[in-house]
């Protein structure tokens, strides 16, 4: 569907009803503000898609319980046509009626009751399309129970609606305890919409009677059937469409009814043509990026007015919380006006963009355009607000995502650059390799049966990232619960651990309207990054992970590691929530988004590097602090610069041999290099061994790769090898270029190295990876490396299984050659 | 009951359709702008609008001068009254002394009766004189303002004020240098929230609570006056919590002192402070008392217990009433919170009614766009013997912790964090009595970061963005 020239954004607003002071829900927590509930209900409306409905685009809430709704809009309505006495021929009447009924059939099939019929809410596009607007307000306000004003126009309302619904006190409905049954019983039904439809058709027909001097019998039949007093005697929308009037006999192309709109300025035609292919929600996103502000638009139009706050103060507030003497603020009354926002300003802003930006796969757009290339270098938060750059990225990702799963590689490549917020939801799903058939899989999972973890889930959800309105809405809670229950039911080998809720939050927020996809992402994420973390007894998994984290700290930052060891501030005290939730428990969601954008591109060891980068960002405070201060510092995560943290963690990752972070519990590797069985690296021993060692081990495979004897990989050697076996053994065979510092003889009495030529050689290599090779039959290699660590020596590791592991390789050389060079 | 039922009932006249129609009409009138009766803008609001316009025009200086002069007039008058009162009491004391020494008991009694009458005559005479002047001032100001607004609107020539000659005096920098009423002050930026952290400003101050109200009247162009005038009708007003007794009386204690201060400045926008107080008293004895009775009746019915039926028509501990002012130094809105001697105890906890009242005040402040709120940190305005240093620390810790809880609670009253606008908690000023020892102040300044989390600045190194 293309956007027509006269399509614009319609902005409307209303206030949610305030909860009575001091009321709380059945769980004892304060009630969710009604505006937040409306936000949640709105979400499914934004998913409705029908040619005869104005699409809902966005909702936001501002102060004083006010919400602002943005929707597709056209300036011409049925009311304007009626007022302007446009001739209503039968063809036109049938076209309009059929369109409305089609829209109603769709709405009713989605369990949405319109209730808000009015000839001004039936809009006509320049192409003659008939589109209902404002049809969602009854639905999003939960049958008007979330607002204090009545919804609908009495002239069009069905008799039963008037009789039932408009008891102003809504005495049948104690809002704090409204149960679903009462709600369903008293809220309006689809049949009430049919009456309203009849009233609209009658209004239209009355006009045509004047013009054409005769009532169309077919139309009369339709109207009469709609205006039956008893709801059950009225037809459904489906039945109405089967009336002969709507048969093919009258099927006239809509083009006949064009109402030419104000033509667009010729210089904007090209960009309009390009933009019209984008979905309206995307266009709105761009409008927002160029500085569009719905609240300001409403203020400008005089719809939003603030009475000076000093006049709305109460006169008296009792200790019980009840207040007196407040007058009703007129500015909070319901105003059905819609403010039209033309998209022309946006088009004008974008008109300099070359057409190639809209076809990014054909050309190398980024290199052709200086400004885009420059924007790509900007900090993340800035380029996310750069309209040109975002437009280019979004259009590009749109194209790639349409080809998923075939285009997965291309998506990964682009995601390494950055992920535009608008596309994040779909990009993440692609990065996690979600199977396109996820919906059916989710549908098949039992999400209802009660489970032993239900209570904990019930407790955790209302405490999880509740500052996000969507996650705080009842709608959000319900989805949250279903996803968690689905995961628990689907993974009997695992249990619900607190933290799973935090892991779910980012996916739920991104895929709020696609619960199945949120689940699919979660289900793909956990085995990739948190393999076995959700075992009932997960201590071995976590201990291994933390031991590796300690090794990583020692490897990259011996000073920090030694300090933390010295004060006894071990990772067990702070890092478990980091890794168990992949930081989702410690950072706000907007930071998690940036963090996971990169995390999802890394392997299961990458989070360890992020952990280290976080520590390093706080390095100075940590080094200055004792145990208590450190505990206090991490009890509430300090501000972290995520972009820098990610840059650091990528550097850490690239400069860490893979085997340093290798874990027994890491997910089975799929990369060709992952097969380490030959070197028998996997079994280091128990976690206690792992924990007792303070320096990491590396595998022989990594060792040979880093040694790079043929100088293939690195221009300059990355690693220096220290052989701590005694001189005799060293003479019998050693690694080329290795330094022999026999453990027994190289130390002074105060624990430093006795200065000699070899030590100088080692000193010169400071900063390179130092791999200590010991004998396979004792742990002197490890001891040596730990002493180096004590001496604040960076990047120290030992060769796993010692010297013997190299015997099978061809690299060993005769000793003399080594000693002399 | 579904649609068919209700229609059948209506057809059978079981439902009073007339009544339904009436209710319907009322609902539409009450809640929908298009159906509401045409806008009833109060006189106050009209004047607020005019005032704002003049304030933002070149006539702002004349406006402030007007206000200043009217306030000076008021102040002189009150000073005169107080002088005469002093004179009167002095004379009477002397007479009485003489009488006690020299005259018979009967004669002394006669004299004191006469004195009493004299005082009453004096008070009522002055009272009506003050009220008269006040009303005249208000009328005068109103006319002046409307006239000025018209001049501003039509682009007319602003009147040249004869007192322009004295401008030099006013702009003398020494006159502009107003001494702060805060004896000690320290500011903190704190963060609240588990993951999403929101910054708030807190300030610890030591001052006399009434000094925040007392208008200095030092110069025509006091920048603070301008600031207060600009924010009067805006969405960032200042509030103050004043602890008062339950008598709501204008003749005793803190309330008396407060009203005296209010009287000294020209109140050109709102009803006189004593009228506002009376209004609060009436609202209480009418509406609030009735509400309380209903609640307790319901409770009695439910529980069959003879729980405390409200007996007095006066407010009780933890209730508060609100007054609005345009003539105070740093405050637009005063929350009069009813307190009693129980707050002197060392044993009060977070459920104490005064703390509950404080919670309602914070909530009211947030929804009413009050962006600076001053709270008596120790829940008293004056220190006494038993309020030792440990007592102060203990009390401050309780109030800090409670307020932190209230702030987290009010976070939900604002707009969501992902949407625009910040409906966050106001800047809070924790007020210590002026006579609190420096030692206490510094101990509390040290305690505050332990209770609230002082924000950790994000240090960006130069290599952060490469």
From TrEMBL, chain A:
Alphabetized InterPro entries for the sequence: Kinase-like_dom_sf, Prot_kinase_dom, Rab-GAP-TBC_dom, Rab-GAP_TBC_sf, Rhodanese-like_dom, Rhodanese-like_dom_sf
Limits of the Rab-GAP TBC domain: 418-603
Protein's organism: Daphnia pulex (Water flea)
Family note: Belongs to the protein kinase superfamily.
Function: Component of the FERRY complex (Five-subunit Endosomal Rab5 and RNA/ribosome intermediary). The FERRY complex directly interacts with mRNAs and RAB5A, and functions as a RAB5A effector involved in the localization and the distribution of specific mRNAs most likely by mediating their endosomal transport. The complex recruits mRNAs and ribosomes to early endosomes through direct mRNA-interaction. Also involved in the modulation of mTOR signaling and expression of mTOR complex components. Involved in the control of actin-cytoskeleton organization.
Rhodanese domain mapped to chain residues: 715-815
GO molecular function: ATP binding; GTPase activator activity; protein kinase activity
Protein name (database record): TBC domain-containing protein kinase-like protein
Location of the Protein kinase domain: 1-246
Organism placement in taxonomy: Eukaryota, Metazoa, Ecdysozoa, Arthropoda, Crustacea
This protein's UniProt keywords: Cytoplasm, Cytoskeleton, Endosome, GTPase activation
UniProt-listed PROSITE patterns: PROTEIN_KINASE_DOM, RHODANESE_3, TBC_RABGAP
GO CC field: early endosome; midbody; spindle
PANTHER family found in the cross-reference section: TBC DOMAIN-CONTAINING PROTEIN KINASE-LIKE PROTEIN, TBC1 DOMAIN FAMILY MEMBER GTPASE-ACTIVATING PROTEIN
Subcellular location: Cytoplasm, Cytoskeleton, Spindle; Early endosome; Midbody
From TrEMBL, chain B:
Name of the protein: Uncharacterized protein
Record Pfam families: Fy-3 (PF10154)
Database matches in InterPro entries: Fy-3 (IPR019311)
Any one Gene Ontology cellular component term annotated for this protein: cytoplasm
Superkingdom assignment: Eukaryota
């Amino acid at each position: 569907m293309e956007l027509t020239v006269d399509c614009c954004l319609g902005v409307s607003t209303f206030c949610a009803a305030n909860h009575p002071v001091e009321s709380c829900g059945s769980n004892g927590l304060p009630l969710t503000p009604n505006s937040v509930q409306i936000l949640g209900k709105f979400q499914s409306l934004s998913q409705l898609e029908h040619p005869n409905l104005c699409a809902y685009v966005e909702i936001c809430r501002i102060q004083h319980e006010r919400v602002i709704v943005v929707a597709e809009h056209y300036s011409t309505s049925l009311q304007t046509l009626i007022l302007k006495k446009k001739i209503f021929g039968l063809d036109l009447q049938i076209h309009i009626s059929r369109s409305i009924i089609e829209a109603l059939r769709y709405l009713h099939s989605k369990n949405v009751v319109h209730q808000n019929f009015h000839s001004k809410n039936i809009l006509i596009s320049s192409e003659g399309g008939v589109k209902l607007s404002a049809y969602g307000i009854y639905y999003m306000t939960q049958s008007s129970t979330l607002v204090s004003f009545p919804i609908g126009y009495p002239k069009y309302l069905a008799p039963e609606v008037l009789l039932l619904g408009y008891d102003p006190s809504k005495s049948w409905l104690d809002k704090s305890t409204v149960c679903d049954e009462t709600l369903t019983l008293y809220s309006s039904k689809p049949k009430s919409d049919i009456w309203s439809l009849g009233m609209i058709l009658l209004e239209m027909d009355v006009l045509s009677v004047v013009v054409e001097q005769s009532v169309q019998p077919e139309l009369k039949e339709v109207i009469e059937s709609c205006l039956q007093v008893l709801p059950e005697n009225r037809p459904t929308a489906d039945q109405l469409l089967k009336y002969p009037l709507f048969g093919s006999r009258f099927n006239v192309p809509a083009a006949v009814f064009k109402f030419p709109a104000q033509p667009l300025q010729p210089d904007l035609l090209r960009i309009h043509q390009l933009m019209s292919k984008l979905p309206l929600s995307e266009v709105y996103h761009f409008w927002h990026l160029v500085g569009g502000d719905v609240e300001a638009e409403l203020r400008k139009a005089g719809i939003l007015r603030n009475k000076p706050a000093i006049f709305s103060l109460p006169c008296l507030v009792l200790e019980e919380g009840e207040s007196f003497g407040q007058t009703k603020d007129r500015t909070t009354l319901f105003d059905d006006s819609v403010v039209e926002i033309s998209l022309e300003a946006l088009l004008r802003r974008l008109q300099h963009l070359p057409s190639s930006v809209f076809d990014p796969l054909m050309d190398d757009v980024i290199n052709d355009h200086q400004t885009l290339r420059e924007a790509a270098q900007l900090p993340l938060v800035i380029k996310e607000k750069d309209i040109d750059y975002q437009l280019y990225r979004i259009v590009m990702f749109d194209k790639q995502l349409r080809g998923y799963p075939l285009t997965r590689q291309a998506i990964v490549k682009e995601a390494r650059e950055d992920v535009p917020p608008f596309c994040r939801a779909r990009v993440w799903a692609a990065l996690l390799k979600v199977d396109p058939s996820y919906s059916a899989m989710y549908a098949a999972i039992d999400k209802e049966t009660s489970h032993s973890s239900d209570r904990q889930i019930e407790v955790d959800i209302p405490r999880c990232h509740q500052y996000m309105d969507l996650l705080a809405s009842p709608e959000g809670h319900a989805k949250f619960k279903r996803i968690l229950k689905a995961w628990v039911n689907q993974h009997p080998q695992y249990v619900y651990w607190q933290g799973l809720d935090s892991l779910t939050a980012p996916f739920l927020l991104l895929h709020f309207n696609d619960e199945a996809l949120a689940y699919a992402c979660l289900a793909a994420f956990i085995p990739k990054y948190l393999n076995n973390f959700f075992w009932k007894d997960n201590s071995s998994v976590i201990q291994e992970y933390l031991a590796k984290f300690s090794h990583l700290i020692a490897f990259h930052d011996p000073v920090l590691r030694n300090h933390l060891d010295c004060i006894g501030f071990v990772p067990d005290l702070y890092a478990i929530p980091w890794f168990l939730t992949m930081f989702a428990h410690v950072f706000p969601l907007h930071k998690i988004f940036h963090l996971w954008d990169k995390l999802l591109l890394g392997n299961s060891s990458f989070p360890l590097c992020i952990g280290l980068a976080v520590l390093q960002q706080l390095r100075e405070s940590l080094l200055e602090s004792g145990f208590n201060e450190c505990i206090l510092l991490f009890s509430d995560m300090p501000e972290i610069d995520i972009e820098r943290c990610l840059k650091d963690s990528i550097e850490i990752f690239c400069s860490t041999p893979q085997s340093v972070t290798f874990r027994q519990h890491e997910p089975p590797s799929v990369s060709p290099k992952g097969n380490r069985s030959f070197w028998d690296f996997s079994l280091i021993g128990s976690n206690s061994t792992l924990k007792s060692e303070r320096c990491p081990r590396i595998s022989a495979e990594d060792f040979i790769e880093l040694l790079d004897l043929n100088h293939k990989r690195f221009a300059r050697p990355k690693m220096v090898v220290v052989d701590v076996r005694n001189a005799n053994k060293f003479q019998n065979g050693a690694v080329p270029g290795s330094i022999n510092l026999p453990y027994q003889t190289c130390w002074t009495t105060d624990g430093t190295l006795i200065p000699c030529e070899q030590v100088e050689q080692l000193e010169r290599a400071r900063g390179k990876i130092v791999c200590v090779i010991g004998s396979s039959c004792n742990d002197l290699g490890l001891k040596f490396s730990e002493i180096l660590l004590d001496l604040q020596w960076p990047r120290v590791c030992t060769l796993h299984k010692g010297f013997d592991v190299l015997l099978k390789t061809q690299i060993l050389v005769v000793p003399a050659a080594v000693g002399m060079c | 009951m579904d649609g068919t039922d209700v229609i059948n009932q209506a057809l059978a006249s079981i439902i009073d359709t007339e009544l339904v129609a009436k209710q319907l009409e009322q609902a539409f009138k009450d809640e929908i702008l298009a159906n509401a009766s045409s806008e009833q803008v109060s006189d106050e609001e009209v004047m607020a609008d005019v005032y704002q316009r003049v304030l933002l025009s070149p006539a702002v200086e004349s406006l402030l001068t007007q206000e200043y002069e009217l306030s000076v007039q008021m102040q002189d008058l009150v000073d005169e009254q107080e002088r005469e009162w002093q004179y009167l009491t002095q004379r009477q004391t002397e007479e009485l002394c003489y009488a006690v020494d020299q005259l018979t008991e009967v004669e002394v009694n006669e004299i004191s009766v006469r004195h009493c009458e004299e005082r009453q005559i004096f008070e009522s005479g002055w009272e009506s004189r003050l009220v008269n002047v006040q009303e005249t001032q208000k009328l005068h100001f109103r006319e002046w303002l409307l006239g000025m607004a018209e001049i501003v609107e039509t682009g007319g020539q602003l009147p040249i004020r004869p007192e322009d000659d004295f401008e030099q005096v006013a702009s003398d920098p020494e006159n502009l240098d107003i001494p702060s009423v805060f004896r000690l002050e320290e500011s903190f930026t704190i963060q609240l929230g588990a993951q999403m952290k929101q910054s708030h400003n807190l300030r610890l101050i030591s001052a006399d609570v009434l000094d925040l109200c007392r208008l200095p009247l030092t110069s025509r162009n006091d920048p603070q006056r301008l600031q207060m005038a600009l924010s009067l009708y805006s969405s960032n007003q200042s509030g103050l919590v004043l602890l008062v007794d339950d008598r709501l009386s204008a003749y005793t204690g803190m309330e008396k002192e407060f009203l005296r201060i209010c009287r000294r400045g020209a109140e050109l926008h709102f009803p006189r402070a004593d009228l506002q107080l009376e209004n609060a008293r009436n609202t209480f004895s009418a509406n609030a008392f009735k509400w309380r009775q209903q609640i307790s009746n319901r409770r009695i019915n439910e529980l069959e217990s003879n729980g405390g039926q409200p007996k007095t028509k006066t407010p009780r501990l933890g209730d508060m009433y609100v007054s609005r002012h345009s003539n105070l130094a740093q405050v637009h809105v005063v929350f009069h919170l009813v307190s009693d001697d129980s707050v002197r105890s060392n044993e009060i906890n977070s459920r104490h009614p005064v703390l509950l009242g404080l919670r309602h005040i914070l909530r009211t402040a947030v929804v009413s766009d009050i962006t600076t709120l001053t709270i008596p940190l120790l829940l008293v305005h004056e220190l006494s013997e038993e309020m030792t240093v440990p007592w102060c620390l203990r009390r401050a810790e309780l109030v800090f912790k409670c307020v932190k809880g209230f702030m987290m609670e009010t976070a939900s009253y604002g707009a969501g964090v992902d949407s625009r606008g910040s409906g966050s908690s106001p800047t809070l000023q924790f007020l210590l009595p002026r006579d609190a020892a420096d030692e206490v102040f510094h101990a509390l300044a040290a305690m505050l970061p332990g209770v609230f989390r002082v924000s950790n600045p994000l240090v960006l190194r130069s290599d952060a963005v490469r």
